[in-house]
């Protein structure tokens, strides 16, 4: 069943670095402004933001800088999940204070095995410590990175305990059966697949849109496809989106995205990544750019 909510695309915005790997704040602000102008929301400090290579002070400073620059907090659902409750609370609380639309919260991912009871206790402590009716918490399910799955049993328990606060989930598992189950079992819960390639299957079941790595490079095209959902033009737009997504997925995603942004924006500084990543290798990166051009991909410059 299709959702009556406005469909949204959110970009886990790439984080640009200087040559010394300090954050390039002006470039970050400019990039986020461009994403919003293209019709995307901002899931800053997501996986493709290299979030777990950023410190808590860096994240708070960048979030405040975006708001100070006039980028609407209502367009932001920052990633605020860290392994410790105090740090997760600090970043989530600041996001709420700034007026962000929500907070995307990873489970604590170091100590394993993590039981549903333990994960419930973690999320409950975060919600109660933030202590705000304005908090909209989005769970972040990416077990291939965290090793900590968010089960449907846990979702059901959190929804019963914190209705109106636990608002949705990003499902980055890559397991369509899991995404489909969430969509069917929790109507009204905002489920975001992690790829625009799944929109044709997810939207009829009520998906809220998508939070996608490749929204960094085709935000306008994804926004256009969401607007076209239910019209004859959607199928062609979806096919184009899937083609571009598949080309990026054949390579290390973050270095690939940054290489393409560097080419499109004419700024080689965008190729910088923090370890353990290394910059895109020219041997495959230039081949990727050629394939994208052949596929009709063009990235709008700011």
Automatic annotation (TrEMBL):
Any Pfam family the entry gives: DHDPS
Active site: residue positions: 140, 170
Keyword check for Nucleotide-binding: no
SUPFAM superfamilies, per database record: Aldolase (SSF51569)
Enzymatic class: lyase
EC nos: 4.3.3.7
Residues noted as binding pyruvate in the record, renumbered to the chain: 211
Protein family per UniProt: Belongs to the DapA family.
The protein, known as: 4-hydroxy-tetrahydrodipicolinate synthase
Source organism per UniProt: Acidovorax soli
